[in-house]
Inverse folding.
């Protein structure tokens, strides 16, 4: 499928940056924002599907990452919507310390998000190059050999890991928002 | 399946929402799905049983929510998310079992994610803007579709059943493209073949509806911006 090969994903990054700049300066649109979101979700999903093929023995790991990506972003979107409906006083500050820290540092956020994508693409490249084994073995091997892939992987993997952690925390806080939304609706009705 | 609207009648005030019975059933559904996909490559009968169990949970949680007056927003979202993830996982399975037609199932996955995401977003936007601004952007096909709940159910279930049958056929050793495998099983008049003949039209219509919904949802996004801009200009 065009546009989904990892090389084209890497090449897309500058284009996405340019789009982001355009978005913020000239032609913001809701449709554009949604298009962007959806493309992110689908391309990450497709990349993870690729990895279930290239690391078939660890199929569950990448399927789990796919489930986490879909769930956490879906829950986040829903809780953002609920938060915009209720007043801020009602919703309370449901964000955890980790999330507050995370969102205050936009570059750090970017590093984590890009780190995840790069880690996935590198794992694909390593497998497609003929490296056999589990993703852990392949990663360790590349890092030990200090190839270009290995070095970039060392830089990207911590970001990837943090992103997954943040995804998990966001699922919990987003679920709390849903619960609080209902609790508030009923306490305001009974008044 | 839970409705997305929460009922207005009074409910148990102290029972924590995370422990509502329909939500407990929702957790069981997730566990059943996780276990199912864990054995998908090694034990197809167990996969079918577990996936069917999660399907039963999906039916039960809505009923229990109404029965025990335990509808919750969290429950509705849990339901939606579990639907999306289990359909995605099933399609990932099919990219493995029909590797030559990997693109077809990846495309169906992209369509499922995109159309539901856009629908969700456009529903949010519609609830923010007034109906006067949004206009009636639904197409005739969608209006028809939504007026017939049982037909909707048939299409949605048809898609899931078609995917599971394709998995079962491949796991049993049927080789070839999904089209060949389907034609062969229908031609042979097997149970799978007959079910497939019933389910596939529903599956096809569901994909068509997904496509149309992407377009109408995108229109909602565009209309939302126009309405905001017009109201600013006044």
């Amino acid at each position: 499928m065009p546009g989904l090969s990892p090389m084209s994903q890497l090449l897309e990054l500058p284009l996405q940056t340019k789009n982001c700049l355009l978005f913020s300066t000239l032609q913001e649109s809701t449709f554009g924002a949604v298009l962007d979101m959806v493309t992110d979700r689908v391309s990450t999903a497709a990349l993870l599907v690729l990895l279930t093929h290239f690391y078939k023995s660890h199929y569950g790991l990448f399927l789990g990452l796919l489930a986490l990506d879909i769930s956490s972003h879906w829950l986040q979107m829903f809780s953002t919507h609920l938060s915009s409906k209720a007043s801020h006083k009602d919703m309370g500050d449901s964000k955890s310390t980790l999330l507050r820290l995370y969102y205050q540092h936009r570059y750090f956020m970017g590093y984590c998000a890009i780190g995840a994508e790069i880690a996935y693409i590198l794992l694909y490249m390593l497998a497609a190059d003929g490296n056999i084994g589990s993703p852990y073995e392949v990663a360790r091997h590349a890092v030990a050999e200090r190839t270009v892939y290995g070095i970039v992987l060392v830089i990207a993997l911590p970001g990837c890991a943090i992103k997954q952690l943040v995804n998990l925390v966001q699922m919990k806080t987003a679920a709390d928002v849903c619960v609080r939304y209902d609790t508030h609706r009923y306490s305001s009705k009974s008044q």
Notes: Residues 38-75+97-185 of chain A form one domain. The two ends of chain A are 57 Å apart (CA to CA). Residues 35 and 162 of chain A are 26 Å apart (CA to CA).
